[in-house]
Structure formats: C-alpha cells, structure tokens
Amino acid sequence: MNLQDKRIAVLLSGGVDSSVVLYELVRQGLKPDCFYIKIGPEEEEEWDCSSEEDLEMATAVSHKYGCKLEVIDCHKEYWDQVTKYTMDKVRAGFTPNPDVMCNRLIKFGAFHEKRGHDYDLIATGHYATTEEEEISETVNGQLSNRKLKWLCTSPDPVKDQTDFLAQIYDWQLEKALFPIGHMMKEEVREIAEREHLVNAKRKDSQGICFLGKINYNDYLRRYLGEWPGDVIELETGKKIGKHKGHWFHTIGQRKGMGLGGGPWFVIKKDVEQNIIYVSHGYDPESAYTQDFPIHDFHSINGQQPPKDITLKIRHTPDYLPAQLEPLGEGRYMVHAQAPIHGVAPGQFCVIYDEQHHRCYGSGEISIE
Fold first, then answer.
1. What is the pLDDT of residue 137?
2. What are 220-246's pLDDT values in tens digits?
3. Alpha carbons 75 and 43: distance in angstroms, whole number
4. Nearest to residue 80, comparing CAs of 51, 58, 101?
C-alpha cells in the first residue's frame, strides 16, 4: 500500500509499541497526526490511574518527531459502553472481555466518530497483520471482482493481538494500519532503544485496557459491590468456604480462592443463588470441555469460517484445532480436538483457519 498520499492518524498510548509505530511511519517520510485517547476514572487519586504518565510519554514521543498530538476525551463513551458491557456480563455470571469491546467501541469506534473520520488510516501498535485477496462475486447478475481485506496473525505468537481485534467491523479493518504487526517484540524494543525513545525500557501494560494500575476486582467492586455467598464442593455438596460475590470468580479459576487444602478449581456458578462450585485436585476432569456452542458469531469481513479451524478462548500463544458445526443464525457447535480447560460462558471464541493465519472473527460461548 502506498501511504504517501494517505492521511494517517496514529493512536499513541504512551507505551513502546505505539511509539515505534510513529517512528516507522516518520522513517518512511510521512508526518502523521498523533492522538492520545483519554479514558480514566474521574477520581484519579483513589484509583491510582497511570494516564498522566502515559500522556507525558506520548507527548515526548510526538514532539521528538515533530508531529502534533491531540488529546481526545472518550471517558464517557468508555464508561458508558465498555463498562456497561462488562458489568452486565459479570452480573449475569459470564466471563466478558473488555479489551475486545474497547477496540470495537473506542479505538476504532468513538475515536472514529470524534476525529478518525477525517483520516484515511488509523495506525495502532497492535501485533497483527492484514492482507488483501481479490475475489469474484455476482452482483445484480454481473460478475465483478473486489478486494477483500483479512485480519491476519502476527509472527510473534506470544504478543499476537488478533484475538482482541476479532469483533471489529469490516469498515474498521479497512482503515486499520498495523505498522509493527510483522515484528517480534524484541525487534520493537531494539528499535526503541536504538532511537532513544523515552519509553524504550517501559514495561508492557498488563490487565484491562485503559484501567492502568487499577485492579480488576476493585473495578468490579466499585460498580457491583460485594455479595457474600457459599463455596460448595461439587462432588460432595459440602460447604467449604465463603466468597464475596460470584462476579469475582471465573470458570477454571485456580488462584485467589482463599481456601485451604488446594488446589481448588471453579467448575460452575449458580448466579441466582450466588453459589460457587469448586472441585478439588490438580486439573480435575470436570474443569475441561471438548464440545461447546457459540452464538452471535461476528465475521470481520463477511466470510464464514470453514469446517476445520483453529481457535482461542483466551489470550495465549496456543491455537487449538477444532471442527465447526453450523447451527444457523450465527450459531455453531465447536468440537475441539482435545478437551479445553476453563471454557466459560461469555468468553469470546476466536476462530482462525487451520494454519492460524487468517482470523475470521469471534462468537460468544453459550451456556450449555
């Protein structure tokens, strides 16, 4: 793609990845405009938010390359849309992924409505790639060719972020640019150090997008409070402890239960009775699922997945082989080649081709 005649917006987060994105574009003779999306709690002292440091880093990097930086306030959109999605899901007993919805609703959504619509491309520091394929189709009886854009994986399996992008729309993918998506993380760090970027040695952010140093359980406690309930051993029906609310626990969880004589695994939840069921031992059989349904499958570019696929249900380097059985109306039954640990309703099941190269999209895991 010739970028010379394109208007490009770069989303700077303050981290090393997006900073190297700006370097890469400037190196090609481009002068993109930079944007910092401001999202964070209003009570910053209480939440110990790191957004001030992020903005300082983003400002320093944009000035280094002579690019203007504009701060876009998407606070209301994030807390109205992404937080509402997250709290509605966990309250109902599901395991949501706020990062997935943040990409669709904020980085390529609210930002686009406010400023991104003025640009041809929106560049981010995601570890992902894209490719185009020419396809033939019949429209109104006429055969025509068009280019189809695919979201594809990064060569760095540990850093690959296609799973976080698997709910974006086709028009959002059309405008997405991932200048470091073909690199390994080590390469990005090396470039940052060689170019003396201010954040070259800064640690990668962990946890939920835009929460900074906020603990996820504190985030849930702030909006949902606590609701003490019983922890019951699945096999015996014996009460073995208490919990502070079913929303603090996910299916397959092993740590943070506060129970003696472990390990204990969360096997299922009774949302109405606020009961957590656990099983004792190391990786009990009941913690694994091989066949499960997904609904509301979202195809990124309109192409439906084949029968033989690979998948992810969480952010790991592993792609799991499986077969898809279509059930109609965006629903599929997933038949994994081997049992999968910690399959939880509400998680996104991200679907790839057999070579885990092209990402088709994702659907939400249903309740059995």
1. 79
2. 998 899 999 999 999 999 999 999 999
3. 12
4. 101
Could you tell me if 25 and 179 are in contact, meaning their C-beta atoms sit under 8 angstroms apart? yes
Q: Catalytic residues, which ones? A: 102, 209
| pLDDT tens per residue, range 27-40 | 999 999 999 999 86
The C-alpha atoms of residue 7 and residue 179 are separated, in whole angstroms, by 15
- Residue 174 burial class via C-beta count within 10 angstroms: exposed 0-12, middle 13-18, buried 19 and up: middle
Buried b (16+ CB within 10 A) or exposed e, 197-235: bbbbebeebeebbbbbebeeeebbeeebeeeebebbbbe
Question: Which 3 state secondary structure label does DSSP give 183?
Answer: coil
| pLDDT at site 207 | 55
Helix intervals (H) in 67-110:
75-77, 83-91, 98-102
Query: Is the pLDDT confidence value at 212 over 70?
Result: no
What confidence tier does 258 reach under pLDDT thresholds 50, 70, 90? confident
Answering whether pTM is above 0.70, one says: yes
| Phi, psi dihedral angles at 118 (to 5 degrees) | -80, -5
* Cis status of the peptide bond prior to 228, with omega within 30 of 0: no
**Dihedrals phi, psi of 192, to nearest 5 degrees:** -60, -40
Give dist(CA 364, CA 84) in Å, integer. 17
**Do residues 334 and 291 make contact, with C-beta atoms less than 8 angstroms apart?**
yes
Cβ 252 vs Cβ 343: under 8 Å: yes
Q: Copy the structure tokens of residue 338.
A: 């081997």
| CA 347/CA 289 separation, integer angstroms | 14
